[in-house]
Amino acid sequence: MKKIITLLLLIAICISYSSCESALEESPKSRLVKENFYKNGADALSALTSVYGIFSREGEFPTIFFMSLLENRSDYSDGRGSQAGFSTYDSPMDNTSQSRAFAAYNDLYQGINRANAVIDNVAGIENMNAELRDQYIAEARFLRAFFYMNLVKYWGGVPLRLEEFTSLDQIPAPRASVSEVWDLIINDLNEAIPNLADTFPESDAGRVTSWAAKAALADAYLNTEDWINARDVAEDIILNGPFSLVEVQVADDFLQIYGPESITHSGEIFSAHQSETNGNGIATHIHRPNTGFSVGGYYAWLPVEGSLVWDWDTSDLRQQFSIYTEYIDKNGEVQQLPESTPKLFNKYRDAGTTGSFNGRNNVPFYRFAEMFLIYAEASNEIDGPTALATERLNIVRRRGYGYPLNSPSIEDYPQGMSASEFKDAVLEERVYELNLEMKRWNDLLRTGRAQQAIEATGKTWSDVSLLLPLPIDEINNNPALGPEDQNPGY
């Protein structure tokens, strides 16, 4: 296992094309290791596990700085300290912010290369169960699609690398168009679904299921404005998936979803699973020290005054769970947050972990609640706010307020809204339901509302903020790219 991870890391490092020639001087030895590796099901599982390893603490994706970038790019959160550059919109990001974006980009391609290694090599293993072999390849195909989704959403068109990187001859790769990247993603997901497992036992929670692939497919269709397919796939998950919304009566019932002790829950579709030995630093980054919610605290993500999360109805249990203004100190006394930071995020909390970067909170990518919101948004684009679309939106809202899911409540959105009003309501509800889940910035970009939302917070906008910069090494060392391929403003 150690040998194969070393090989995969070497190949992934070469994606950035720096010092690749010297790194590959030992390539005959690396090929020998590869030839000796893909022999049986255990080898296949080890290779697949290395793809999932991208979600661990080894880099920038998905936490902490990729997540910080997306959250502090959104209109409801400002980065503080070294993360302030993520919240500047009238000029290119500063060098520190760019370097973190480059690191996330490289992490994503490292994941793609590991997935390609599984796809290319596991198919040739004869000494294993054929159904399991197809499943492993399907999981890798989903993960490749998922990594490309995170690239195309924020960098636009990127080079498509569809084979394991084993030679310098593979370095040249032209920049694909946005539509070509989305076509690959949708094709990968559709190919993966038939061979994926429908469920896993709790001991394997976090692995890709057919339902995770369908959720990603609904997301892909939403981003490409294929409203009919987005609606229909979300409908399939709602009606036929093995999921249910976690019902809540008090705010801390949401700990069943986000708490450090939660292994999985009935509404989880796909998440990065975390533990003390494979954790994250989210709680440390959002809290002040000594509040009882984290080990240490940088309070580097600050709610924006006047935004949806600042003026959020305090009767909403999601607000009570996600935002705090006071805490209990070590003497058991209630303390108000200081005037400089009167409100902070509280969705992720883990004071019982072993260290600042060992947070055990899982990082959700797709939850059942989002499928109701995707259905509502897509259905509205097709037929306007139908009764079913409005009911699906209200089910999510009722859960947020602690009401029975299937009975009308005083907090319901009314029937008879215009299509424009309904879309506004869906996008607002996505903030209340999905804040700090790496959704809002994509929502603003895909709906063309980024400038409007950012300027509403009093900041100055420039279109340079629409896309992240391609890494300098990608431009300089990929012979198929030139300076003209860089995103505007960089």
UniProtKB/TrEMBL annotation:
Keywords: Cell outer membrane, Membrane, Signal. One of its GO terms (cellular component) is cell outer membrane. Residues 1-23 form the signal peptide. Its main location: membrane. Residues 320-490 form the RagB/SusD domain. It is found in: Cell outer membrane. Pfam families: SusD-like_3, SusD_RagB. The keyword Cytoplasm does not apply. The keyword Signal applies. Residues 95-222 form the SusD-like N-terminal domain. It comes from the Bacteria. InterPro entries: SusD-like_N, SusD_RagB_dom, TPR-like_helical_dom_sf. Belongs to the SusD family. This is RagB/SusD family nutrient uptake outer membrane protein. It comes from Zunongwangia pacifica.
